[in-house]
Predict the 3D structure of the following.
Amino acid sequence: MSLTVKPILPRFGAEVSGVDLTKPLDAAQRREIVDTMDKWGVNVYRNTGLNDEGHIAFSQIFGYLERAPAATGRKTRHKYREIFDASNLDADGNIIQDEMLMLHKKGDQLWHTDSSFMEMRTSYSLLLCYEAPPEGGHTWFADTRSAYDDLPQAMKDRIEHLEVEHSLWESRKKAGFPLTDEDVDSRPKARQPLVMPQASTGRKSLYVAAHARDIVGMPSDEGRALLKELIDWATQPQYVFSVKYEPGDMVIWDNLASMHRGGEYDSKKYRRDMRRTTVREGTPPEIADDPFAEYFKASLGNGVIGSKPQPAPAA
Ligand SMILES: [Fe+2]
């Protein structure tokens, strides 16, 4: 097999075709697909024909799939815990009108990397489109490897060994969710390197995101200014592109080599049904079950966002 790869930017993102993802893949096909991801950071596959089962089966070629907390006493739209709901729909398939829940989801429109607030990091996310709004609702991607490569050497030296605390609630606060600094600080955080090495390519990336709150050992105002400077740097036009979806399209991104954000759309008017699987970075399956349940239990207490109990958001 030889994939057809059309770069989107010279160093980042590619439209990929030439393989039927609904069929079992042999070792050589899997290798080529993974290598293409490593090289380009974001891959777009159009009109895949995948359903939930196929989405899960294909995603497993990249590693262990994270699972959302088990649904107890609440209805869910999906029967598989490997499918994270990135839609604007409730469990009955109706458009969410709950203002607090909408505000919570608005955090996904800030530049971020999925699950950087978890100690066990997410490597790949695979987002499959079932319904797309007629206007807006793109996903934007930023090339955090090339952004790192292009930094002045003095900045590379300054940030090389820094660590950053990430919190889901930091990005929700930035998006306008009513939280105080004390609320964010009292909830779990994960400590991550600011410069992320990528073993498969030898490259490094800027591991920054809206979830990033403070740089360890640095005064808050100084650390937050530096994080903002790096996010602004990595989201300059030469590092950024967007993807428009049709049903069946799937985008795969490497969270350790990119940032992304959801584009605006009229979420009270248009349905947007997107479903995501996420791959855990290099963790053996036997210890890789669902820390999300613990995280949200510790973060939310009664598990309520908005007026009803909700599953873990796809953030
Ligand atoms: Fe995301």
In short: Residues 306-311 have pLDDT under 50 and may be disordered. The chain has one domain: 4-309.
